[in-house]
Every structure is written in structure tokens, then in C-alpha cells.
């Protein structure tokens, strides 16, 4: 397995986000500021974790001699994923999350991933 310093940066981002989220949940009193910090920490944790998961998937699926994308390059995908998840959590906190909204969030995420991937492919091919 190849060594990547950027993977360490993304891993630090993810672990830091989850650590702050745990501190907020278990130690801080409930307030609007606490909720904002929790959402920001969750965003960082989700983004980094998703990027690392996608990188490990690409590393397993890539053929010899092909350079798969790195975790730092997949961080944008992680941010889109975290946005969709946190929007769903926000809808749930308002008691408005329904099956239709979950389907819309998943389809929106997949559509955005398709758009960004096709734009990447066009840039590389050009």
C-alpha cells in the first residue's frame, strides 16, 4: 500500500471532527452555539470519513499502473455527502424528514456526483 501524506491530513480532519463532536455531545451544555459547533464538527468528520472510504474503494478497484484519486482529491465529494446528510438531520430535527425527502436527498447527491465526475472526465480528456 502506498504512503500518502494527504491521507494523513484527511484522517486528521475526520478524527478531529469526530472528537469535537463527541466533546460537544458529552461535555457542553445545550445552546445555539453548541448546535452550530456540532454541525461544523459533524461536517468535518463526515467529509473526511467519506473521502477516506472512497479512496480505499478506489485503491481496491484500481488496476496496476493506474493512479486512483487521493483522499484530498475526494474531499469535495465528502463535502457534498456531508451536506446531504446534515440537511437530512436538520429536516429530522424539524420533524419534516419523510421518505420522499430522503429519496430526493439521495438522488440529488448522486446527480451532483455524476455532474462533477463528468466534468472531471471532460477536463482530463481535453
Q: In a few lines, what is going on in this structure?
A:
The chain has 126 residues and is mainly alpha-helical. It contains 4 helices and no strands.
Explain how this protein is built.
- The protein is mainly alpha-helical and 126 residues long.
- It has one domain (5-125).
- The chain contains four helices and no strands.
- The chain has helices at residues 5-27, 32-61, 75-93, 99-125.
- α3 (75-93) runs antiparallel to α4.
- It is flat.
- The two termini are 31 Å apart.
Radius of gyration: 17 Å
Strand content: under 5%
Number of E-type strands = 0
Helix/strand/pairing class, anyone? Answer: mainly alpha
Number of helices: 4
The portion of residues assigned to helices is over 70%
